[in-house]
Design brief:
The chain is α+β, with helices and mostly antiparallel strands. The protein is built from 20 helices and 16 strands.
Amino acid sequence: MAERVCIIAHMSEKREPIEFDGETFHPVPGDEVAYASVRGRVGFHDFRSRGGGRFRLACTRIVEGVLRAWYFADGNRRDRTAARLVWQTFHGPVPSDSFPVSVNGDPHDVRLVNLRLRSRCETGGGLRSGRSILTRHQVLEIRSRPEAMVADLALEFGVAESTISYVRSGASYKDVAAPQPQPATPEQLDRLRRRMREVGIDDRFVQFVLSRVERSGRLRIPAKEAEAFGIAVWPRTVAITIARRHHLLRQAGRQIYEAAVDMPEGTWQSHFEDLVLSQHQREVLSVRVSRAIAVNDEIPSCVVDSIVDATSLDGRFDKGAITGTAFSSTQSRVIMRLLLCGGVVEEVSRRTLVFVDMPGRTHTHGREGARVKPVEPSSSGYREAVRMLVRGDDLSAVAYESGVPAAIAQKMAKALSVDTVTRLLLASGKQSQLPRLLGLPEPAAKAIAEHVSRSNHTSIQSTIR
């Protein structure tokens, strides 16, 4: 160790420029191992390697928007500002009231020709770390944009996210006067109160929002303060979701929102009407759901209203609208199977269903809610449905496996239960009238006729034997 200290002391006394990697590295005054080049690169003598004093390039990284260089000296790691080392090498010590910065604003570019000294009063006081490169104008711009995300501002101004947070909170640049927020006017509060109550938001959450909203609409909803106000996590999440769905709140940052305090009355009425289902849409969707679940008498009627109330403008609704009103998990699965097999809805995700071809907001003449008919099952599907019904399978299982709508499957089951009528019609040669008399599509009536004919043939053969 003593020998290494002597080597370092000897090197510090007589150090010459070093040619390395096509560049000339000059010794940094006041540092016994560091070197810097006019191109902004930093090197050092690494005495940890065998042979002693091998020259290496220092590692660099961006910290709070500043390029830092770290290297080893006397067994310890040193962390220095790369721009300061370059300036100190060629221009001497840096004054205490200034610091070197990049002229083009690129923190990676610390070439000697791209450096200049900037006074701390030029930045409005600087950060407590003393390494800020933000101007007073930039600080005011950051504080005037509360809706911008911290990560976006950090990328735009070339600083760390913590720097943006310090600027916004006032922990840095204390001598730069931050704009004082103005409270919302009584007209704005009354307008926002009425609109939040119209969409069904809890009164306690409404009072919390009105007590914190600013005149510009900016609003912070910290979780701890909301809980102290008596609003639990789940009610707060539901209220924010409803408000964002109706465009009363807009996410502007972490726990920061913008409230629609300046939307005119007429605009809000048309806007609110466009956010909910029309009466015609509710009626059409109620009819579709009622027809699909009519084959099961045990399903409660309130399921229809629950599904329609939870449906958005694009026809999507959460499966919780079914599970919340069904008597059991088995019944909720039956309801979803009936809706899926009947061609009423489609499954788009694990938790979301969507109506097939949402109807328009107004009635279209000649079309039932602009509904697209489900795909007609094939002849093999009808034959498979007949086999399953004869076997005694459940209607929902028949509709799911064969692709035949549940309503048609129910009519086929009734026709099979009174197959005597079908036999008489077949015996009298009136097979073409089966679809009309049974109220079934022609492929379904044909599948039933084939089954009855096979059963008659089988019974005759058994009698002969």
